[in-house]
Amino acid sequence: YKYSIDEAIENNFLSHYEYHPIFINLIDEEFDEYKEKTKKLIIELNRKPEEKDELKIQEISNERASIVKKAKNKTAKLNEMIRSGKYNFCNSVVYCGQGKETDTDNRIIDIVTEYLHQGGLKVSQFTSKTKDRTRVLVEFENGYYDTLIAIKCFDQGVDVPKLDKIYILSSDALIRQTIQRRGRVLRKCKETGKEIAYIFDMIALPPNDLIEGIGVKPLVAKEIKRMTEYARLADNKLYSFKLIDELVYKYNITEDSDDEQETYN
């Protein structure tokens, strides 16, 4: 038996939500690396079936995805959002990338934590290494923490009805993850009377002046795929789909805009 998010929202078992894409650009060095990984991926994908190494293809794909997840402008944009005072980070979870910033020795989760601290927020990290995660969740529910900073372990098996906002700096390509994360933030909460939730999603695009070339379409197409899934059930879907249409037009994205359709000589 299946009961979809669509049905749960329609039947008022889950709250409604708004979806807000936040656009950032990869810096030149990041996109150069992304492009080199794409070239390697194209070579592997275009081998004869008997010569393909699926493990190598997956390894290159993961390395390339990591570039997007750890994009430097994501933490910079988050800091800008915190300092602006226009965004409410109470009752929220920030999903950030795993590992260290590419040009420093600082963990991304520690950078995000420090920015939120500087913004006057009470925060706690929530990862597989967090001691007594149950206590952290209880304290979050009771208002001791404003914001939790997570990597992946908040995606499933966690029920925090009070949560009403998520900020996504890092995502996997799997639609399953968008469903899990959306499910976390859409839980009804009698205590707060939550009726609507908010999803802020950082969308990585090529450097500002780049609209074509190796790696451009696969990058934008993958981001559009996630945007479309989040947008389709949002109360403000007309706004979100307008932004998607603008990306499709600007980058000439089609259903065939993926790695296997790229050519590299």
Keywords for this entry:
14% strand, 9 helices, globular, 265 residues
User: What radius of gyration results from the CA coordinates?
Assistant: 19 Å
* Count of DSSP H/I helices: 9
- Please bin the fraction of helical residues: 40-55%
Strand order in space, largest sheet:
1-6-5-2-4-3
Q: What proportion of the residues form beta strands (DSSP E)?
A: 5-15%
Helix-strand topology string: HEHHHEHEHEEHEHH
Question: How many strand segments?
Answer: 6
Backbone shape: globular
How would you state the average pLDDT, rounded? 88
Structural class from helices and strands?
A: alpha/beta
Termini, distance in Å? 49 Å
Largest sheet: 6 strands, parallel
Parts with pLDDT < 50 across at least 5 consecutive residues: none
Could you characterize the architecture of this molecule?
The protein is of the alpha/beta class and about 260 residues long. The protein contains 9 helices and 6 strands, in the order αβαααβαβαββαβαα. Strands 1-6-5-2-4-3 form a 6-stranded parallel sheet, with helices on both faces.
